[in-house]
Task: structure prediction
Amino acid sequence: QVQLVESGGGLVQAGGSLRLSCSASRLIFPFSRYNLGWFRQAPGSQRDLVATIGSGGRTDYGDSVKGRFTISRDNAKNTVSLQMNNLKPEDTAVYYCNLGGQWGQGTQVTVSS
Result:
């Protein structure tokens, strides 16, 4: 079974930055073939798309994070990362990575005002 482990969450002040990473293992196919994504879920809310990156490197972002967040992948290390800049209190959520429909355990991001 695919295993995804997120890291890099924490508490940061508004305007600050964090970098999340997700490491994948026990893959059926080469990591490079997978479409990857970051999602987030705030308390009482649904899980929303943050960013995706395709196997060919194409990226897509949710409207609320465009221009502030950057998704990237390292196929040699089986990792997908999310660089988050100019964080806002409304970015507070549990962030999950997704690979082939599988989810990690999530990492908490809290942005204080």
